[in-house]
Amino acid sequence: MRTTGTGDKIPEIEVERLPPKGESTDRDAGSPGRTYGERARDALDPVAAGVLVDVLDFLTRGALTPLGLLLGVPLGYWLGRRSGLTPRRALLLGLGIGTYCVLPFTAVLPAGTLVGMYLRFWRD
Predict the structure, then answer these.
(1) More confident residue, 37 or 107
(2) Count of CB atoms within 10 A of residue 14's CB?
(3) C-alpha torsion angle, residues 109, 105, 115, 41 (rounded to 10)
(4) The model's pTM
(5) Which pLDDT does position 94 carry in this prediction?
(6) Rounded distance, CA 33 to CA 67, Å?
(7) Three-state DSSP string of the chain
(8) CA 100, CA 109: separation in Å to the nearest integer?
C-alpha cells in the first residue's frame, strides 16, 4: 500500500492480461480453442516424418545412394519448417537426414524415432 501526502492509503493493483477468448497461451495445453485436427497433426507429424525418412533411406540404397543426400536435405528442411523449426534448425535437420540416407547399413538405426524426437524437442 502507498500513502498519499494527506495520509490516505492507496492499494496497488497488478493487471493480468488474459488471451482472447478461445486462445491459449500454452500450445499443448489442450485448450478448447484447438480442434481435433490440430491435435492430431501435432501428434502425428513426428511419426509421419520418421516414416518418410525411413522410406527415403530404403529407396536410396545401392546405386541410388547419392540421391539420398540430394533428396534428404530438402525433405528434412521441409519437415522441419512444417513442424515450426527455425530455418537454421530445419537446415541442420535436412543435413542430418541427407547424411543418414547416404550412410551404409543404416537399417538398424532408429532414424524415424530420432527425427520425431528432434522435431518435438526444438519446436517453438
Answers:
(1) 37
(2) 4
(3) -100
(4) 0.62
(5) 93
(6) 42
(7) CEECCCCCEECCCCCCCCCCCCCCCCCCCCCCCCCHHHHHHHHHHHHHHHHHHHHHHHHCCHHHHHHHHHHHHHHHHHHHHHCCCCHHHHHHHHHHHHHHHHCCCCCCCCHHHHHHHHHHHHCC
(8) 9
- Output the average pLDDT for the chain: 80
CA distance 46 to 113: 8
Q: Which tens digit of pLDDT belongs to each residue from 49-103?
A: 888 888 888 888 888 888 989 999 999 999 889 888 899 999 999 999 999 888 8
**What phi and psi, each to the nearest 5 degrees, are found at residue 100?**
-60, -40
Q: Answer whether 73's CB lies under 8 Å from 106's CB.
A: no
Q: At CA 20, angle to CA 29 and CA 39, rounded to 5?
A: 30
Q: What angle do CA 49, 72, 57 make, to 5 degrees?
A: 75
Letter for the amino acid at 111?
A
Q: Which of 41, 46, 109 is nearest to 80 (CA)?
A: 46
Does residue 33 carry a pLDDT above 80? no
